[in-house]
Amino acid sequence: MEIARFLADLKTQFQGEIFTDEPMRKHTTWKIGGKADVLVRPSSEEDLQAVFRCANRYEIPYYVIGKGSNLLVKDGGIRGVVIEIAAEGFQEISVGENGVVVAGAGVSMAKLAKETLNHNLSGLGWSAGIPGSLGGAVMMNAGAYGYHMASYVTKINLVEYIGTRRQISKAEADFSYRHSGLMGKPWVVTSVELALTPVADVSDEIQQMKDWLKERAAKQPLDYPSAGSVFKNPEGSHAGFLVEQSGCRGMQVGEAQVSTKHGNFIVNLGKATACDVLSLIEKVQERVLQNSGHKLELEVRILGE
Ligand SMILES: Cc1cc2nc3c(=O)[nH]c(=O)nc-3n(C[C@H](O)[C@H](O)[C@H](O)COP(=O)(O)OP(=O)(O)OC[C@H]3O[C@@H](n4cnc5c(N)ncnc54)[C@H](O)[C@@H]3O)c2cc1C
């Protein structure tokens, strides 16, 4: 890999921030992960195109992240370039006619939920407690309390790794439970069009959002670093319930622990490594399989080596 030449070339055509040997624990809510060779924070779509141009020229692999709230980065880190969609250029929220909202992929779900409600637009109150970006939420088809992103997305704007801009429809995104057809595709979500419902009064929905946030604080271990739910819910059951029923609550490997508050969370007690988390995941999966016959699938995404 020609990281040095890639960097030299990129610096001549890139306005955003560039970090080298960047610890990924600084960019994940689990606060775990080895170093990325390079992490860039593009300031605009043009920057994004410049990253792809250079990465393709020097054959540097690339990975896209949002707020890192659904990611486990392995202890060996990431060879290549991590593209973090977080800068100002991806933060705009524009409210149009009839409940149409176009927002940058870097906008936090908390901000988007609150701002759209402030514009008397009903729809996203359930997502205010999801600590991810809009881009990540669309990729993952994030959801809670019976709602999910797929119900609100109408169009997705992308930059493809070959550098071209493209817009796809909701149908092309092929959403299903905690999954979109965008996963693994060579493109980056830059902004998303959503259809919300204009209403005269959002006060009930704002109250409901506050209640949901309180419920999260009561039921989830928010005082420890985590990545939210580790496992997907198997059809007809709840992963957290199965984990607890299998006696895994409080189970620990190194400083990674199955939360004593919520069975589907693995918390970092301080210095957990990705190795600790992966080995704990395996133990939990084995126990749940033996106890209930369910093979738990991962909701969190794993990156690195
Ligand atoms: C305390 C806590 C509570 C949570 N609660 C919920 C919940 O209720 N419901 C829920 O669904 N999730 C929940 N999560 C998980 C997580 O917040 C969501 O999955 C979120 O949508 C991930 O967004 P992100 O920006 O952090 O994405 P990341 O974790 O950075 O990335 C996730 C995936 O999306 C891809 N990606 C991110 N941004 C882009 C982009 N712009 N273009 C292309 N690909 C991109 C990445 O490559 C990766 O594959 C929770 C997490 C925590 C820590």
Instruction: Work out the number of β strands.
Output: 18
Into which percent range does the helicity of residues fall? 25-40%
User: In CATH's first tier, which class of the largest domain applies?
Assistant: Alpha Beta
| Main sheet makeup | 5 strands, antiparallel
**SSE pattern:** HEEHEEEEEHEHEEEEHEEHHEEEHE
- What characteristic shape results from the CA principal axes? globular
Q: Which strand order spans the largest sheet, edge to edge or round the barrel? A: 6-7-13-11-12
The overall number of domains is 3
Report the uncertain regions: none
Q: What's the overall average pLDDT, rounded?
A: 97
Helix/strand-derived class?
alpha+beta
The CATH topology of the largest domain turns out to be Uridine Diphospho-n-acetylenolpyruvylglucosamine Reductase, domain 3
Report the span from N to C terminus.
16 Å
Please indicate the percent range of residues in DSSP E strands (runs of 2 or more).
25-35%
Q: Which architecture of the largest domain does the CATH hierarchy give at level 2?
A: 2-Layer Sandwich
Bound molecules: flavin-adenine dinucleotide
Give the radius of gyration: 20 Å
Number of helical segments? 8
